[in-house]
User: Fold these one by one.
Assistant:
Number 1:
Amino acid sequence: MLKTGFVGWRGMVGSVLMNRMIEENDFCGFEPLFFTTSQAGQKCSDIGIDIPVLQDAYDISKLCQMDIIVTCQGSSYTEKVLPDLRKCGWNGFWIDAASKMRMDKDSIIVLDPVNSEVIDNAISSGIKNFIGGNCTVSLMLMAVGILLKKGLVDWITTMTYQSASGAGAKNMRELLSQMNCIGEKLKNLVDDPQVPILAIDKKVTQTILSSTFPVKNFPAPLAGSAIPFIDKLMDSGQTREEWKGCAETNKILQTTTDKPVPIDGICVRIGAMRCHSQALTIKLNENIDLDEICQMIEESNKWVKIIPNTPDDTAKYLTPAAVAGNLNIALGRIRKLNIGPKYLSAFTVGDQLLWGAAEPIRRIFKIIVLKQTIS
Ligand code: HSE
């Protein structure tokens, strides 16, 4: 039976992955072994299934016994362990949620509802590294990837509204501490209808900018504000997050060597918990009817949901709070811009931890298990 090692399964993305695997009854057809970077030899039962004693995640000879390794441990783990494993001749499948190897020549970025042909070809041709994509890119492609696949797009701008979860669990807590801090400081004033709103607003700004406001993980206060810079600055003036939009999309669709579709925009952190939103401007290369576009998108995968362009539907279905915790990719505000009939506007929301992180990993694991079991 196929042996699979799981690493980093107790972190945030790893926990979402475990929950989804349990929900979908995925723990069958292979023998799981759970690795840890800190608690080797201990017993652990906190994921809802019976699991054997934990193994050392740095034990190369133990890892070498695995047919498949699934890791949500992060890029530094990948960097430390994978080269040693390959040096030892390990030829198993490496499935990784971290970004470290995404752009490597011998890696495939996985998002099977969008690039299943690429994945199938890669498995047949002996590729062994399958890496989850950047969350913003995956969520955008789940929504409108079909337009790119059909060659209908000249370029896209993606203006993002990214949740705290994309920055990590600590950042989610920090956002909540910041909200708490404002709430506590302002409670009496807010409850008193006699206090003018501008006095309240002044106090909010003072609180957010005070030296005691909890800002350790984000580069600036996020609650009551926004941060238009995610990840490092690149020579191009883009942030690394913005750079990924074009680089990863074209790699996922394997248009890189052919004619990459330009994609760019501004990535912004906002005070949502776990859903990334994006405002898209898509320059089509022909004037396609809106109904036809919506039909293509709806038929492209079963998760994307077109939200009618009404205030009620938008408020009910097209917000981070409405989408949080479910697999639907909401796509609304779809219309032609008055700039011209080839300019399409849309707004999309998806769960950063599900389709943005754990779900493509869960699904590539299943695909590989199935293919290996059949062959
Ligand atoms: N880099 C993304 C973010 C999340 O900061 O929101 C990971 O794909």
Number 2:
Amino acid sequence: PFVSGQLTRLLTDIAIAAKIVNHQVNRAGLAGILGGTDRVNVQDEQQQKLDVFADRTFLRMLSAGKSVAGIGSEEREEFVLCGNEGRNGKYVVLIDPLDGSSNIDVNVSIGTIFSIHRRTTPLGEPLVDHDFLQPGSHQVAAGYILYGSSTMLVYTTGTGVNGFTLDPAVGEFFLSHPSMSFPERGATYSINDALLARATAPTQTFIAGCREASEPPFRARYIGSLVSDFHRNLIHGGIYLYPSLEGKPEGKLRLLYECAPLAFIAEQAGGLAEDDTGRILDRVPTNLHERVPFYVGSRHLMHALNAC
Ligand code: AHG
Ligand code: MN
Ligand code: MN
């Protein structure tokens, strides 16, 4: 009911920025943009050159359009206001410009994750914290770009999930995966095994169960790029876990840039996404860079985890 063409325009801008980033990702080894910078981001992680490039590209593209009022990026401490101090655009964007940074230098699939909210303050007023700190259930759209063996854009506007593949010869995304949904059965689990000893009891019990199961036998798959792990599990059926850890109860992944958008996609694809207490989409953020334990994937596997 609120669609006036601005959201379409915004998604088109995201697709254009994605093509620019994709081009750099593809020639990263040649372009002298592999490796780290001497900067550390607000998450206390060393920024890679491609993190910075992707962040700047998406921010520049989104602030040049008329539809975005403000942007929160994983790479920036504060949110950024677009034209006229954020008074004009209808939408707020939250973005993980480059997901899977540790895989950049080794030529392994990486991604971008984005989340789009309608502003809460009236048009014409400056944006405030509240515009950015909305629960995931308020998202208007969410998606990811996967820079993999082919480049894909997968997104939802709340009426199912569609996947588009970039045809590099034409330079355009084409619908290749209509109405994506988790398959009924799936037997892949994805977790950083090195963390398991510090994980909570239900996670340990669940993984032990997966290892023992014979019908069907499980596969462990962990790429270390959330977008890629999520995408594989969406296609084949599976579950991804980044649990609460001893000494780090909030886990690692970020609610606004990673978990909420993927939770929206997961639910739209018939799956579930939760933290230790319930639905990710119900969680009201208290700060921009908040972290949460994250469990996401096929419904039957999420139920099995909850039974542990
Ligand atoms: P980012 O590169 O945006 O900081 O995200 C990295 C995330 C996610 O992509 C991945 O699943 C996870 O970190 C891997 O963490 P571990 O190395 O702790 O397994
Ligand atoms: Mn990430
Ligand atoms: Mn990132």
Number 3:
Amino acid sequence: MAAINQVIDLSVDDGIAVITSNHAPVNALSAIVRDGLTAAFEKAIADDQVKAIVLTCAGRTFFAGADISEFGKPAKGASLHALFDKMESAPKPVIAAIHGTSLGGGFETALVCHYRVAVPSAKVGLPEVKLGLLAGAGGTQRLPRLVGAAKALEMVTSGVPVGGKAALGAGLVDELVAEGTDLRAAGIAFARKVLAEKRPLKKVRDRAVEGATPELFAEFRKKNAKAFRGFEAPEASIKCIEAAARLPFDDGKKFEREEFTKLVAGVQSQAQRYMFFAERQAAKIDGLPEGTATRPVKKVGLIGAGTMGGGIAMNFLNKGIAVTIVETQQAALDRGCATIRKNYENTAAKGRMTQDDVEKRMAALSPTLDLQSLADADLIIEAVFENMPIKKEIFAKLDAIAKPGAILASNTSYLNVDEIAAATKRPQDVVGMHFFSPANVMKLLEVVRGAKTAPDVLATAMEVGKTIGKVAVVAGVCHGFIGNRMLAQRQAQAAAMVLEGAMPWDVDRVAYDFGWPMGPFQMSDLAGLDIGWSKETSKGATIRERLCEMDRRGQKTGAGFYDYDAKRNRTNPPLVEKLILDFAAEKGIQRRKIGDEEILQRLVYPMINEGAKILEEGMAQRASDIDVVWIYGYGWPVYRGGPMFYADTVGAADVVAALKKLAPVLGEGFTLAPLLLKTAEAKGRFTG
Ligand code: NAD
């Protein structure tokens, strides 16, 4: 085998050239890979002894994609486009032998080959949309030529890869070879077959796009309008597939290039690429040596089978981890377990789980009224009422029951984890694990690091998050941690604006148009207006209290800030409008018109300001962690990159200027974060 460079080898086996890439960890198409491939293909094409060329990869995968760390930087190394032209126009068959994940640029590399063989476990696809991009090297032009317009639309706009078997069925690969087969040998064997049978050089670019009717595109856009709302990349991808059907290949490719160039320079793809790295960064714990040993977690205990306890339990059951769930009353225990079963049965009814799966999960759940049953649990998560004396009492009891080394976690939303830890004689084993509702669905987990939390406890809590499919972020002990502390700022402004002149639906419309799935008042209606409210103590001091007093407690009572019909469609009730106007008059508030710009600034900028405080106080490890919290916990639109990234796109100086101008209406307690001021003065950024 002859080395072309450090990562590319070329060898010839009785007339078949084999080009092998060995660029750990995932054979990303970095400059050095493109350089080596270009030289290797030139050599193999020029060599008359070579009758066919096999392209394969060593290590765990075929080319997994472009090297996204090169994006937005000055171009270096051989051009991918020139390499692709060379490969596709080779006068001898080029065969890709695929294993692992052949995605994005990696799959585009396979598409310029004349034939593709793969193992069944291989996955192929164009996931660029997830980074706010599209396949920019002919992928959107070749894919529909291979699989037809409908399948290409689905693959390109979802970014979801296709497994080997489905890829064979769809015509994405020509042959599947048995799992574990040496792909070099399989590629050579396939090449010999192509040569023996004198098969033609199949160029994907020469094929026509099937099924590309105007109705197909119109229906696809309509069907996905909600999912694609606000995102630029899916629409650009659809347009490229339309172009593939309408234009000759080279013109279509030019169109694709233009669309790609727009996206790659745009804020959305910058934001989405930033989030890709931010999410990975979140797993890193500052001040903790990499490789800190974690504690094994095989048995989990949950205290409280309410809204959160049940949802949290499901995460573990889904991963085959046994859960013991404790309640004080049999009725509450039965209700909680019945809800878990109902959730699973609903999933089964939709065909996303078998009845057997349901039973397996339920069999791993042990309901009990006896806290003592948690004696052998490795991790115990408390999810009882948000009430400090109750939590302290439980932790004191756990101290006597839990085995040494067990991790004691609280799902508290706001309470002081250090105070909870102090109820035990093992505060080093106590940590916050703050899940988000619905806990079996929402991806975010805030891991709250107490003053005395041991490093391996923190590391274990983060690892547990990963095991159950969450994105875990470290937060410090403060009221509401990262997410809810910032949310409080947004909610306070929303409530204030309604008194000053806006209506709930004005505020919600602006929030929705910004890209949130729902506005603050819709969110309150969904969560229930009566959280923390009681009839006995209610004094009608806020609009919210007055709504609760009218038994308008949100969606669950069919009415809150909005009226809801049986299908949960909302309408704006005149009664609520009157209630607001009367309330404002009673308080002597002179209402004024509040424009959309002010609404947006007051919803978002105080959050950014609070984020800066959180960062400055060390309650978040880094600005990107705050963004991860907002994207995964509160539906912040990913294409805006989270509040701190958004602050950077607006510019800290503009945020400060707006907040100073708004100062008279922001409320007495509002103060500018020194870090925000400093960043503005230095014309700096929060995110890299
Ligand atoms: P919930 O009222 O739905 O459930 C609490 C459950 O705890 C009830 O079933 C109750 O019977 C049980 N319980 C009370 N005392 C107990 C005891 N001593 N032993 C065993 N069980 C006991 O409340 P929830 O919404 O699930 O909230 C639970 C915790 O999670 C709170 O700390 C809350 O702040 C936090 N949290 C809630 C949400 C949310 O959106 N609901 C989100 C994140 C965190």
